[in-house]
């Protein structure tokens, strides 16, 4: 959160219709393992500098949470932070849970010592956590605290083994994976925890139009180009709404995807992946294994404009 990013946050906040800005803290806990998998290609010679929280003591995790809160809460245009440090599996589960707990407490800032609670933010700031619902359980709700919420990914589910794990899911397979993942959401959030859904409008690692691997070192086990012939991102957006607006899904989830801002529904809407100039994996900047399109095409956005309001119309997804 340097001065340039602070100005960028303000620029976004100044856009008509934007009510809040969440800063993203993104990284791989297993980054060095990824480097080894992809031809040991440490292009910038950074070495193993990746944020492995399993290396930290409880004292260090608490210090990291304090430093994080103080850094972001210096900026009044920042309303919260989203933590996307993956993967959520051993040996990272325990330290990640502790870090989120410490961070949520710091950004709630009950005693107003972190700078997170002030006249513009009388209730402190929010902490959200990006994850898969199937990897969570309700005990994580306590770590998120009263200002916390989940961002549940409904894409990149159940990767196939083909082409190093990058084989695409068809829109029908994507929808089927959504349906299998959705029941986990209610088990995690119960009747109180809040959540968003993350869905693809631009290319993800398994929902895309085209995969173009880099030349030379760096494509690792995924060096075969792939064309998802005849499929566009619009088809994935349509498949997502076909699932979310399905009456049977609404009944089975007891209206989990009913968006009601006035009554503070548990569901907080959709986070659309992703408005990037480029989508690559591994995420380190020297890799160029590219998934296309990197930004949502206009026809996909048109479907979002068409169907998105139905989630908040009080009837389509509500009980």
Short description, anyone?
The chain has helices spanning 3-13, 31-37, 58-73, 93-108, 140-144, 162-165, 171-189, 233-244, 247-252, 298-307, and strands spanning 22-28, 80-86, 126-131, 148-153, 194-200, 210-212, 226-227, 267-273, 279-280, 290-292. It has 319 residues and is α/β, with parallel strands linked by helices.
Structure description:
This protein has 319 residues and is of the alpha/beta class. Helix content is 33%, strand content 16%. The radius of gyration is 20 Å and the shape is globular. It starts with a helix and ends in a 12-residue tail after the last helix. The model has no long low-confidence stretch (mean pLDDT 96).
- Fraction of residues in β-strands: 15-25%
Q: Tell me the structural class.
A: alpha/beta
**CATH domain class:** Alpha Beta
- Written as H for each helix and E for each strand, in order along the chain, the element string is HEHHEHEHEHHEEEHHEEEH
Q: Which term fits the overall shape?
A: globular
Tell me roughly what share of residues is in helical segments.
25-40%
Largest sheet: 6 strands, parallel
Strands side by side in the biggest sheet:
1-2-3-4-5-8
- Separation of the first and last Cα atoms: 41 Å
CATH architecture: Alpha-Beta Barrel
* Unreliable stretches: none
What's the overall average pLDDT, rounded? 96
Number of domains: 1
Rg value: 20 Å
CATH topology (fold) name: TIM Barrel
Task: Note the total helix count.
Answer: 10
Number of strands: 10
